[in-house]
Amino acid sequence: MGAHDISRDLPGTLTQLEVRKEFDKWHAEDRAYHGQDPYSGSWATINSITFPTNEHFGTFQEAYDYCLDKSQKWEFACAVKYLHLTRTQTKAPTFLGKPHKNDGMVNDPVIIRHYPPSGYGSGVDNSRLIAADQLREEVKVKLLDLFEKDRLEGRDAQAAQQALTAYLRALEKPETTFEPKQVRELRKASFAALKRYAKTHHMFTELADTYRKRLYAYDEKRDLRWLVCGWAAS
Which of 34, 97, 167, 193 could serve as 160's disulfide partner, Cβ 3.0–4.6 Å? Predict the structure, then answer.
């Protein structure tokens, strides 16, 4: 039988004794639920908890890796403190005077595809691209033009690649005659279309990144938390 990692975190204000009591509660609850199953993959398969260091870790991942390295299957899990990062958005752009929720219709954090009530869901696509209100007019125009060019050239690059792939697959059939010139032309067209798309996509991404950093802001707060982690038999 094997084992998998299991973890939970707790407020950093708890003492070691209080953390141990929490672990004992998880162990008892899982034991009551799973019974004597030695491979339940739960806290019931871990006998105890240990505190291998008094130092705290800078990130969750550092604490997680350390705990897994120090923990022993069947025997004990480890508990260490780490700095938990909470990121709160403090500034975001608006579109047509309103904040935009990520509802699956966002094309880019500085541009959305706007669906008026009369068009969305009615079978009539009268949507249009909208740039963030906070951008200058000349920037909006440039971003929207680049975005549309990026979309069209991406579509052309995909079509050119599909044409090449379709011809190469057709060559697998005995009735298809191999035409070296046609293969060269298809490959040349595919490469040229991909090159155009890559250049435009890079230009749009670079410009959008510049303004995205100005339109969005976040407040970061770090507080100490306990991570309890170990190997559960399964």
Answer: 193
